Amino acid sequence: MADWVTPFLGLTGTLLQAQGYRSQGQSAKQQGQAEQQAANYRAEQLDQIAGQSIAASQRVAQEQRRQARLLASRALAVAAASGGGASDSSVTRIIADIHGEGAYRAAVALYEGEDRARQERMAASATRYEGELAAQSGSNAAKAGNIMALGSLLSGGMSLYEKYKGANSPERVIKSRS
């Protein structure tokens, strides 16, 4: 009865080892896919933040233009109330400068928003790339697990030492000296 137990246990161990390698590879693949999904989610959030940055900068630019119009209107009213000519060249130059400064500040606000959005989009692209790398790494680990499982099955569960130990193995050298 003991004659069949040892080979049976060896075969069972080999099969379990092969299944373990395969399961380990599949687990790595699933982890890579989960990391890719998480990275894609973070990237979508970064894209949304980029859109919000542009929208916020447009609002700031609009407010800068509104402030410039109000300031120019007040400058015109003060000039007219002072008794001087509202169409005097110095008054029109001041009003033009106010409008120019408002346009400049609006353009700066838009640029800053676009710059923040560009940075967020770059971060989103990098995050997506990280997710792709994680998925590829998981897929490679799954392939390696399958190869290890196949190797385990083909080797019959024996280590290379057990399979190829020869006349010069330490065990045989010790036995021959005794």
* Overall spatial form: rod-shaped
Largest beta-sheet details: none
Q: What is the domain total for the residues?
A: 1
Termini Cα gap: 33 Å
Mean of all residue-level pLDDT scores: 85
The proportion of residues in beta strands is: under 5%
Count of separate DSSP helical elements? 4
Beta strands, count: 0
Structural class: mainly alpha
Low-confidence stretches: none
Oligomer: single chain
Radius of gyration computed on alpha carbons: 38 Å
Q: What letter string, H or E per element, gives the SSE order?
A: HHHH
State the helical fraction. Answer: over 70%
Mind explaining what this structure looks like?
By secondary structure, the protein is an all-alpha fold. The protein has one domain. The chain is 90% helix and 0% strand. The protein has helices at 2-81, 89-155, 160-164, 170-177. Helix 1 (2-81) runs antiparallel to helix 2. The mean pLDDT is 85.
A few lines on this structure:
The protein contains 4 helices and no strands. The chain is mainly α.
Itemize the secondary structure elements and their pairings:
Blueprint: H1 2-81, H2 89-155, H3 160-164, H4 170-177
Helix pairs in contact: 1-2
Keywords:
mainly alpha; 178 residues
